[in-house]
Amino acid sequence: MSGPNAALRCERGQGLAEFALVLPVAMLLVVGALEFGRFLMVRQVVVTAAREGARMAILPTTRFQSEVEAVVREWLRNGSLDPARAQISVSGLRASTGEPTTVDVRYPFDSALFRMIGRSGAVTVRGVSTMLHE
Fold this sequence. Notes:
It is rod-shaped and about 95 Å long. It starts with a helix and ends with a strand. Helix content is about 50%, strand content about 20%. By secondary structure, the protein is an alpha+beta fold.
């Protein structure tokens, strides 16, 4: 066949083929952007929890590590994270005035994007805050 109809017949499925090629890349970009935003949110919550824990730790009325951990876990809970998954360490809790206290919070970040591309395991998000005793 020749003429205008022959050219249309050859290109009939072209749009569908292009869509099939572009869709996975577009979905990967969208999911990647969402996961990156979620990672930044988790990082911000972990850093804030560590900072608030350090503020609690430097107060003269704070005597036990469990008090600091309770504050950190509350901030993680307020940030929609599971406090049971966090690792919290406190050093220099009962130091003298002017001495540093450090609160270190580690939280595993599981990414749907990692699972999509075949990478297993979580990335550890870490927040560390050091403040001087009052």
